C-alpha cells in the first residue's frame, strides 16, 4: 500500500504557491473584503497592534504586508525612518505601492517581493517586525517566526495580529452565526 502525501491547500504546488496565486487573484478586492468580512473592525485592530510599538521604532519590517495597510498606519502613527514591507503576492504589492504613493509615503515605505521563511535581511536589522493576518498563511510557521526573530534587533518587538475564535459568551455565538450564515452570503 503506497502512502499519498497531502499538501496543504490541496495542490501539489504547495501552500506557498497557492497562497500567492490566491492573493494575486483577489488583490483588487482585498481591502474591501477585509472591511466587509471584519465589519470594519480590522482598521481598529491594526491601530491597536501598532500601538504595542510604543518605543517608536525607526526601522520596521512588515511581513505579509499585502496592500500595505499596516505599513501605512505605522508610518502615520510612529513616524519611523524606514518601513520595508514584504509579500509573496506581487499584485497585492502593486496595490500597496499605489496606496503608498497616494498617501505621500514613498520616502518612508518600500515594498518588495519576499518570503517570510527566507528573509534577505541581515541579523538584527530591524527595531520592530509586524505581521497582520499573515502567519496563518506561512507554509512553515516555525521557520517564518524564526526568521522574524533573526532580523529583529535585541530589545526589539514583534507584533502579530491574527484572527482567533472567541470562546466567551456572547461573542462565540455571534462569531459562529456570522461565519455560518452571513459570510457565505458575502
Compose a concise summary of this entry.
43% of the residues lie in helices and 18% in strands. The protein has 186 residues and is of the alpha/beta class. Strands 3-2-1-4-5 form a 5-stranded parallel sheet.
Plain-language structure description:
The chain is of the alpha/beta class and 186 residues long. It has a single domain, classed as 3-Layer(aba) Sandwich (Rossmann fold), CATH 3.40.50.150. Helix content is 43%, strand content 18%. A five-stranded parallel sheet has the order 3-2-1-4-5. Strand 4, helix 6 and strand 5 form a beta-alpha-beta unit. Helix 3 packs across helix 4.
Please outline the helices and strands:
Blueprint: H1 15-26, H2 30-37, H3 41-51, E1 59-63, H4 69-78, E2 82-87, H5 90-102, E3 109-113, E4 126-132, H6 141-151, E5 152-161, H7 171-185
Parallel strand pairs: 1-2, 1-4, 2-3, 4-5
Features:
disordered N terminus; 5 strands; 186 residues; 7 helices; alpha/beta; globular; five-stranded parallel sheet; Rossmann fold
For the sheet with most strands, the description reads:
5 strands, parallel
The structural class is alpha/beta
Query: For the largest beta sheet, what order do the strands appear in spatially?
Result: 3-2-1-4-5
Shape-level CATH architecture: 3-Layer(aba) Sandwich
Strand content: 15-25%
The tally of domains stands at: 1
- CATH superfamily membership: Vaccinia Virus protein VP39
Amino acid at each position: 500500500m503506497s502512502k499519498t502525501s497531502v499538501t496543504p491547500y490541496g495542490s501539489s504546488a504547495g501552500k506557498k504557491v497557492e497562497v500567492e496565486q490566491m492573493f494575486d487573484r483577489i488583490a483588487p478586492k482585498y481591502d474591501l473584503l477585509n472591511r466587509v468580512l471584519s465589519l470594519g473592525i480590522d482598521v481598529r485592530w491594526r491601530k491597536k497592534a501598532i500601538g504595542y510599538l510604543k518605543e517608536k521604532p525607526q526601522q520596521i519590517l512588515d511581513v505579509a504586508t499585502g496592500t500595505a495597510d499596516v505599513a501605512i498606519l505605522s508610518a502615520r502613527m510612529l513616524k519611523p525612518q524606514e518601513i520595508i514591507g514584504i509579500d509573496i503576492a506581487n499584485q497585492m504589492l502593486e496595490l500597496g505601492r499605489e496606496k503608498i504613493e497616494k498617501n505621500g509615503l514613498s520616502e518612508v515605505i518600500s515594498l518588495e517581493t519576499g518570503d517570510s521563511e527566507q528573509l534577505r535581511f541581515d541579523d538584527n536589522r530591524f527595531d520592530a517586525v509586524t505581521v497582520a493576518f499573515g502567519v496563518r498563511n506561512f507554509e512553515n510557521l516555525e521557520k517564518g517566526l524564526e526568521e522574524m526573530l533573526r532580523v529583529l534587533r535585541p530589545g526589539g518587538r514583534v507584533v502579530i495580529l491574527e484572527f482567533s475564535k472567541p470562546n466567551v459568551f456572547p461573542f462565540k455565538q455571534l462569531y459562529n452565526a456570522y461565519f455560518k450564515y452571513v459570510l457565505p452570503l458575502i
